[in-house]
Amino acid sequence: MNPHEVNTVRALLAEPQQAVIIPHKNPDGDAMGSCLGLYHFLTKLGHNARVVAPNDYPKFLKWMPGNNSVLIYEKQHTEAQALLDKATLVFTLDFNELGRVGPQMEAALKQVTAPMVMIDHHQAPASYAKVTYSDTSMSSTCEMVYRFIESIGSTSIIGEDIANCLYAGIVTDTGSFKFPSTSSDTHRIAAELIDKGARNAEIHNKIFDTNTANRLHLLGCALKNMVIREEMNTAYITLSQEELDMYQYKKGDTEGFVNYGLTLDGIKFAVIFIENREEGIIKISFRSVGEFSVNEFARNYFNGGGHKNAAGGRSERSMEETITYFESLLEKHKMELTS
């Protein structure tokens, strides 16, 4: 954060605030970890803070301290809207464009008169916030929240609850510290969080080692469906609504499936297409290694975006039409994918 941003936030927090903290729709570990970490921090400073998530999130994230206080806008609309109506300060975390909360909550946020503070590490931030703390070089929004706490106060205030939440977000968004965005500073912050009470082994177990038989069978189905285009250095997976239903899909069950394509020797570009019949879309996750920007690919063709090597998007075509379109795009980008 630059000095002006730091001074602005300090001024905002100089008086008790009714703060609402918001993650993106379908929040992941970084979104919930950063929101709950900030929630505990603001509460320690004497502010009345609450996390309002647009919709529900996976069970393997619900162990985080403070989870029981989270409101789900989709399910608890009246109570959540009342908090937004009386908010004096709003934090938006792990997203940088209001459309990422879904149309219903986006409309509500556009009516909010309270100043907003954005903390996010994705590319191309919008300009809706009074304070925009954006840094695409950071591994995660949780790493940024640590820096935020460091900038406006002191990390001495970080206790076990904050440490566990922030560590959880860092470990998920770095792929257990293997993604290129993981820096030496990321490791130093993770070490500091462990020193302050983060139970690293327990966190890994709760996030990554809580599979159900149905999830493992769904993974088997996904891997069986994988198409490998060696001549394009590309692998992609499809999962239909029927296949999801067959294995009693629950939110979060496909987390990480897209990364399996990148474990294949020579593959630079991995994609998963997941049908969501209720919303009438194909949800898409993109991953890459090297210089191929999936952020640009998702923005240009699939109404999405994210990071250079990890992004998301959507298609309103059928699965068959989406795959046909995607295959045509591979031909268009063949030189980038094969060079």
From TrEMBL:
Residues 20-170 form the DDH domain. GO terms for molecular function: nucleic acid binding. Residues 249-328 form the DHHA1 domain. Pfam families: DHH (PF01368), DHHA1 (PF02272). Transmembrane segments: none annotated. PANTHER family: BIFUNCTIONAL OLIGORIBONUCLEASE AND PAP PHOSPHATASE NRNA. This is Phosphoesterase RecJ-like protein. It comes from Zeaxanthinibacter enoshimensis. The lineage of its organism: Bacteria, Pseudomonadati, Bacteroidota, Flavobacteriia, Flavobacteriales.
